[in-house]
């Protein structure tokens, strides 16, 4: 004879099962410690930087990890493990920002691929016009610093000449 479960037991079992699913979904497969959300705005001469890349370089390279993001219409969000927008590890960082106008017309003309296309990409990037002062392209010359804390972080940058 089969015993009937009481509704209370079924509800508890369901809640425990859902709780385990939520806990299992909180981790990731990167093997990295917990990262914290980092986003912000990048302006140059009071105007949003239209496009570019931002790099957070940890002051302690032995224990830290780089975090990067794409700037679009002045806004960015960081990721440590790729394009997951998973944030950055807590710590102090030096920051670099790159924003260039690259003419890819010659690259697009060479649809052969291979090293010829790679050479075209390299040449186009070398000729690219920087949309912000070049000093910001390197973390050791930018003068930009940031601290990521164990919370959601907003870090804005106002670039000047």
Characterization of the model:
This protein is 27% helix and 30% strand. Strands 1, 2, 5, 10 and 11 form a 5-stranded mixed sheet that branches. A 4-stranded antiparallel sheet has the order 4-3-6-9. The chain starts with 6 loop residues before the first helix and ends with a strand. The chain is built from 4 helices and 11 strands, in the order H-E-E-E-E-E-E-E-H-H-E-H-E-E-E. 20% of the residues are buried. It has helices at residues 7-26, 105-109, 114-127, 139-142; strands at residues 38-44, 47-48, 51-58, 67-72, 75-77, 91-98, 100-101, 129-130, 144-148, 153-154, 157-159. With 161 residues, the chain is of the alpha+beta class. Strand 3 and strand 4 (67-72) form a beta hairpin.
Question: How many helical stretches?
Answer: 4
Q: Please summarize the sheet with the most strands.
A: 5 strands, mixed
Oligomer: single chain
From the spread of the alpha carbons, the general shape counts as: globular
Residues in helix, %: 25-40%
- Total domains: 1
Provide the structure class.
alpha+beta
In the CATH hierarchy, what is the superfamily? Immunoglobulins
Radius of gyration: 23 Å
- What's the CATH topology label? Immunoglobulin-like
Strand percentage lies at 25-35%
The count of strands amounts to: 11
CATH architecture verdict: Sandwich
How confident is the prediction overall: mean pLDDT?
Answer: 83
